[in-house]
């Protein structure tokens, strides 16, 4: 069995970056910017007042009485300038008129008609923001990057109305198994509710994909084939369940018959051993194990990085960090163990009580996957160990 690291490398080898499209900035949140954007202007485009008050000359002294000769507001520049003995009423965001060297806050000023008296101390700050202090013409926002809310505001400030982003990956999700019915339906006594696809869809969408849950495929070749037809055009097809060696585990034979070029089947990890990956008619195929925890952990570790790579973000594993073990850990077996665990301040990481791969409750209350390497020896409480945040 290959290692999880080798499996991820093989998944990346199946992925091609998708084409790009231009979208209005308003609809670009969370999309992956593929072309760098260059600012065509300075911000601010002029020296601007940072406060409401009075603009005064460089030679103005504490206690001076000055004549107010005009007004500058945001969006309403004062066309003239001031000289010694003069001041200009000025508001936050206004262009600083010629001759103004500092802004004195209005609450520090006594005003009497057109005359103002400066306070006893003018303070250190000029309360003037220099032209281009935020960004200047020619500054760039590099690509690729996922567009955060703040990045959108920055692009807007640069006067960029549209951006070139990656097309959203189309992900088709196929749950398989005669025991499954959708939430809201009435299960027979020998049936359960299909849960995994909801987490897989949400994880795909968190990566910027458009994901669709296809009808549940029954454990027959005919049913599986007909649901696969509905996946036509998808960039990624994710199956759930039917991946193991049981008589009713038909995903493998069916995807082979449909022409899948398998990359691997089975990896040395726990949970998630029966993971499969390949290429089916241009789509990346991920065959996830059916156990709820196994499917979601595999989606987190393999589907998410693959979707990032598809959108041009490069080939990176999910980020990890380290924390001190909250209790002793027994030696691990031959598969890397992704232990469902809770983080607490420190940071400290403590495995959940029960690691059975069917337990959604355990995964739902976990913050992280504590990584116990294959063949790793026993570990003592307090030792630093790597974890992958969930
Ligand atoms: N003889 C062996 N048996 C099993 C092995 C093995 O190596 N030898 N591996 C075990 C491991 S590890 C896993 S993981 C599972 C994976 O099996 P499948 O991928 O074939 O999954 P199923 O049998 O279809 O389902 C397993 C389990 O999960 C439930 N399930 C399936 N799909 C969903 C869904 N969409 N939502 C909620 N629950 C789902 C299903 O009812 C089963 O209980 O195989 C072990 N067996
Ligand atoms: O690998 Mo299975 O995912 O241990 O339950």
UniProtKB/TrEMBL annotation:
SUPFAM superfamilies: MoeA C-terminal domain-like, MoeA N-terminal region -like, Molybdenum cofactor biosynthesis proteins. InterPro entries: MoaB/Mog-like_dom_sf, MoaB/Mog_dom, MoeA-like, MoeA_C_domain_IV, MoeA_C_domain_IV_sf, MoeA_linker/N, MoeA_linker/N_sf. The keyword Magnesium applies. It catalyses: adenylyl-molybdopterin + molybdate = Mo-molybdopterin + AMP + H(+). Its cofactor is Mg(2+). Signal peptide: none annotated. It comes from the Bacteria. Keywords: Magnesium, Metal-binding, Molybdenum, Molybdenum cofactor biosynthesis, Transferase. Residues 172-309 form the MoaB/Mog domain. Its EC number is 2.10.1.1. It is an enzyme of class 2 (transferase). Pfam families: MoCF_biosynth, MoeA_C, MoeA_N. Gene3D superfamilies: MoaB/Mog-like domain, MoeA, C-terminal, domain IV, Molybdopterin biosynthesis moea protein, domain 2, Molybdopterin biosynthesis moea protein, domain 3. Pathway: Cofactor biosynthesis; molybdopterin biosynthesis. Catalyzes the insertion of molybdate into adenylated molybdopterin with the concomitant release of AMP. Belongs to the MoeA family. PANTHER family: GEPHYRIN (PTHR10192:SF5), MOLYBDOPTERIN BIOSYNTHESIS PROTEIN (PTHR10192). This is Molybdopterin molybdenumtransferase.
């Amino acid at each position: 069995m290959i290692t999880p690291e080798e499996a991820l490398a093989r998944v990346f080898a199946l992925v091609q970056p998708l084409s790009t499209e231009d979208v209005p900035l308003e609809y670009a949140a969370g999309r992956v910017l593929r072309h760098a954007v260059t600012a065509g202007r300075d911000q601010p485009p002029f020296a601007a007042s940072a406060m409401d008050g009075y603009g005064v000359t460089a030679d103005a002294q504490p206690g001076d009485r000055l004549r107010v000769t005009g007004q500058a507001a945001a969006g309403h520049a004062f066309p003239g300038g001031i000289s010694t003995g003069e001041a200009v009423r000025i508001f936050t965001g206004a262009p600083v008129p010629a001759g103004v060297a500092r802004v004195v806050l209005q609450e520090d000023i006594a005003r009497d008609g057109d005359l103002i008296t400066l306070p006893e101390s003018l303070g250190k700050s000029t309360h003037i923001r220099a032209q281009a202090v935020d960004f200047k013409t020619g500054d760039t926002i590099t690509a690729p990057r996922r567009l955060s809310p703040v990045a959108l505001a920055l692009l807007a400030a640069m006067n960029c109305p549209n951006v070139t982003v990656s097309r959203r990956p189309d992900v088709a999700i196929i749950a398989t198994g005669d025991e499954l019915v959708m939430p809201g339906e009435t299960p027979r006594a020998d049936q359960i509710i299909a849960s995994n696809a909801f987490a897989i869809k949400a994880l795909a969408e968190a990566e910027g994909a458009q994901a669709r849950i296809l009808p549940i495929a029954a454990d027959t070749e005919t049913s599986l084939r007909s649901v696969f037809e509905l996946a036509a055009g998808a960039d990624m097809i994710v199956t759930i369940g039917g991946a193991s060696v049981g008589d009713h585990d038909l995903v493998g034979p069916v995807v082979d018959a449909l022409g899948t070029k398998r990359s691997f089947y089975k990896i040395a990890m726990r949970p998630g051993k029966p993971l499969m990956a390949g290429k089916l008619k241009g789509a990346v195929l991920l065959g996830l194990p059916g156990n709820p925890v196994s499917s979601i952990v595999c989606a987190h570790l393999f589907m998410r990085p693959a979707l990032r790579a598809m959108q041009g973000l490069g080939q990176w594993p999910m980020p990890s960090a380290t924390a001190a073990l909250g209790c002793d850990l027994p030696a691990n077996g031959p598969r890397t163990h992704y232990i469902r665990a809770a983080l607490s301040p420190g940071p400290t990481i403590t495995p959940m009580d029960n690691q059975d791969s069917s337990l959604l409750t355990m995964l739902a209350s976990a913050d992280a996957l504590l990584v116990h390497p294959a063949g790793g020896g026993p570990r003592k409480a307090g030792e630093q160990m790597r974890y992958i945040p969930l």
